[in-house]
Amino acid sequence: MKARAAGLLLGYAADRLLADPRRLHPVAGFGQVAAALERRTWRDDRPAGARYVATLVGGAVVLGVVAERALPRTLATAAATWVVLGGTSLDREAAEVSRLLAVGDLPAARRQLTHLVGRDTSRLDEAEVVRATLESLAENTSDAVVAPLVWGAVAGVPGLLGYRAANTLDAMVGHRSPRHERFGWAAARFDDLVNLPGSRLSAALAVALGPDRAGAVRAWRRDAAGHPSPNAGPVEAAFAGALGVRLGGTNDYAGRIEHRAVLGDGPPPDRAALDRARTLASRVGIGAALVAAVVATRS
Predict the structure, then answer these.
(1) Mean pLDDT of 93-107
(2) Closest by alpha carbon to 164, among 178, 177, 150, 185?
(3) Domain total for the chain?
(4) pLDDT at residue 130 tops 80
């Protein structure tokens, strides 16, 4: 188990230093396989979607088992951790949005934001661009950093690869659309399940490591349930409370309008708040890596 802990820390450090692999990213390759399988197996019903998820996530878990047996555990865990984490790339995207806003290039900031969110960004003003960026930064710190570390701590390489497969499938087919309303149901529900422990740890770390602990606890307890996602709600609410800002509002998803509940008590976030959110996300990631290493050592 010490080898697993060392691998998690090495993989986390690799992500911090190197970010995602620039070429031949395994997650992109998995996405291509998943897209091809969807074209062959799609049916407008939930059982077909459940079989699709079971096949792909199960395959990722089996690959993880093989990798752990074929390679030294520290090496296998470090490589898998580096592949599945996305914290540094996430921070760079948020930093670029902030930079573009600082130089007054709102159109470019809107375009950059499409790398982070699925909502329509074409008519957002600066305040809404900042809000969307901060919300994505909070949610994806949980999804792309904390949750995979949790699964790596308790289940090693199979947990890391299986989690990333589940999260990728949710992004591909788990959203509401005429094609995926039923086929993507299993992907969305399974992603909710596997993200539950990571989201709670993310929110707890935001409380512990943020500048306003009382505000973070208050917003988490009071506002999280109003968010449509059972996992994004606690994380975004805790970030909002810790930073003293207000998140939530109206979002446009390709013509589908959602009115999100307000999270937090403060004013809408500005660029300074976004920079503070990046610092908090970094602290949460470091905290999660250390917690994961401890859990792995004691498992």
Answers:
(1) 97
(2) 150
(3) 1
(4) yes
Provide the residue range defining the domain that includes 133.
2-298
Give residue 234's pLDDT: 97
* Closest C-alpha among 192, 197, 83 to residue 146: 197
Mean pLDDT within 180-205: 97
- Give the pLDDT confidence score for residue 292 in this predicted structure: 98
Closest listed residue to residue 73, CA positions, set 193, 147, 139, 160: 160
Per DSSP, what are the bridge partners of residue 258? 251
Q: What are phi and psi of 247, to 5 degrees?
A: -110, 175
Q: How confident is the model at residue 252 (pLDDT cuts 50, 70, 90)?
A: confident
CA R_g for the chain: 19
Mark out the alpha helices in 71-86 (DSSP H runs): 73-84
* CB-based contact 263:227 (threshold 8 Å): yes
Nearest CA among 104, 156, 147, 152 for reference residue 126: 104
